[in-house]
Write a structure and sequence with these properties.
- The complex is a heterodimer.
- Chain A is mainly beta.
- Helix content of chain A is 0%, strand content 49%.
- Chain A contains no helices and eleven strands.
- In chain A, strands 2, 4, 5, 6, 9, 10 and 11 form a seven-stranded mixed sheet that branches. Chain A has a four-stranded antiparallel sheet with strand order 1-3-8-7, with no helix packed on it.
- Chain A is globular, with a radius of gyration of 13 Å.
- Chain A starts with a strand and ends with a strand.
- By secondary structure, chain B is mainly β.
- The chains are: A mainly beta, B mainly beta.
- The interface between A and B is medium-sized, with 28 and 25 residues.
Chain lengths: 115, 110
């Protein structure tokens, strides 16, 4: 019974390159959330997706960032033209379905370093 | 939006003593309050949670209390052990998003 999986675990990019982060939710979970964590800070919500739908992207920067959760395959968080300020740990969480409050289970994260 | 504050930011206790971490929230619509433990280089792990229709919940050495009127909730760890050393985050949610506190770095001294 695998948990939430994220890859890569570590990603190094030069300024201006693209970063692609992948998240496979727990089996049976159809809801995915992306969070960003800066060093010694809490997690900040970025985006919430269901299969083929973006439900809430209020925490995601309007430019350079995009997310998708296709019918088949993992959820992808894409950061175009990365800058040094994008360096952070990016965590994905999944939950089985939405009710007023539902548990979220986190993956191990992708640590992005922008040189 | 919701604002979650967490105190203290660092906490050191002797092995066997108790540790208490406190959080406050601002949005009365929040109704779910999970606590996560994060070890170095790993993702947050859910350790206990409480919903707004409950005042207290306990799971072995870990307990959480919720005061809806005052809008605060606390994590209590009794008989602490060195393996409890980690960063602990509280969160509040009333819908899609979790709003996290800034974390408490707990060190249990053997």
């Amino acid at each position: 019974n695998a948990g939430v999986m994220q890859n890569p675990r570590h990603l190094v990019r030069r300024r201006g390159q693209e970063a692609r982060l992948r998240c496979s939710p727990m089996k049976g979970h159809s809801h995915v959330y992306w969070y960003r964590q800066l060093p010694e800070e809490g997690l900040k919500f970025m985006v919430y997706l269901q299969k083929e739908n973006i439900i809430d992207e209020s925490g995601m920067p309007k430019e350079r960032f995009s997310a998708e959760f296709p019918k088949e395959g993992p959820s992808i968080l894409r950061i175009q033209q990365v800058v040094r300020g994008d360096s952070a740990a990016y965590f994905c969480a999944s939950s089985p379905k939405v009710r007023a409050s539902n548990e979220q289970f986190f993956g191990p994260g992708t640590r992005l370093t922008v040189l | 939006g919701e604002n979650v504050e967490q105190h203290p930011s660092t906490l050191s206790v002797q092995e066997g003593d108790s540790a208490v971490i406190k959080c406050t929230y601002s949005d009365s619509a929040s109704n779910y309050f999970p606590w996560y433990k994060q070890e170095l280089g790993k993702g947050p792990q859910l350790i206990i949670d409480i919903r707004s229709n409950v005042g207290e919940k306990k799971d072995q050495r870990i307990a959480v209390t919720l005061n809806k009127t005052a809008k605060h909730f606390s994590l209590h760890i009794t008989e602490t052990q060195p393996e409890d050393s980690a960063v602990y985050f509280c969160a509040a949610s009333g819908g899609n998003q979790f709003y996290f506190g800034t974390g408490t770095s707990l060190t249990v001294i053997p």
